Task: structure prediction
Amino acid sequence: MNAPTGPVNLTEHSGSSGENRLRSQDESDGADPLARAPRHVAIIMDGNGRWAEQRGMPRLAGHREGVNAIPKVVDALAQRGVQFLTIYAFSTENWSRPTPEVEGIIQLLHETLQRETDRFNRKNVRVVHIGNADRLSPEIRDAVERIQDETSGNTGLVLNVAFDYGGRQEILAAVKALIREGVSPERVTEEVFGSHHFTAHSPDPDLIIRTGGELRISNFLLWQSAYSEYFHTPVLWPDLDEAELDRALASYGNRQRRFGNVIPDTGS
Ligand code: IPE
Ligand code: IPE
Ligand code: MG
Result:
């Protein structure tokens, strides 16, 4: 096995499953950091409101621009070998925003799902909603179901759309499900617990990107991110371009993921 390349940042950690662990070691020879694509990227798409405010526009204009930015990021990451992309579109706590903003965001979701389904099919993207649906109107719930059904046969990138998603609520829901199922304590392993999360079909995120400059997790993928790498950028979500995405991927590619282990002996 070759030497890990690039700087080691002790404040930034890495992935959790056995599968991720193997993958990381296999890929630790990267001469070109962009050649080591993370398998699963998750993005906290923050900064829509500020993007609009900076232009003297209503916040919803920022959300519209933000939603419009999603397809190009999906395409760019798929082209770079990413297999799973999870986007944080609306948190459990975002319901506390003013009603017109909440309703506007939900409407944008609706429009986008309808508009993008054909495109996702052309691009072989499978869309999966992660989060709760019970506070959504029947119309929106149907639209969410429809896009999931219509893209369910696609075998390319899996796009997890986190909408009405909260990590703590997800953990509580998993605990409640296990209790309801009468699972005995000794059977509650990390795998069983993880399989009761919305993301059971996805590996843990390798890289979590947050746009908009905040240095916090805001209730995103709390269980799944135990060993994720983080990349923060001041770029506001609607402005995120391929160059900044490549910076994030290059940063990831230069890191050494150790999963609690020691630096491998390179023999050199
Ligand atoms: C992120 O942008 C989108 C959602 C949370 C729905 P914000 O609306 O949080 O934008 P800022 O952080 O106010 O700029
Ligand atoms: C996180 O952004 C949620 C989404 C991007 C959907 P917020 O803007 O809601 O996060 P806080 O409130 O700044 O932590
Ligand atoms: Mg925000």
Q: What stands out?
A: The first strand starts at residue 40 and ends at 44.
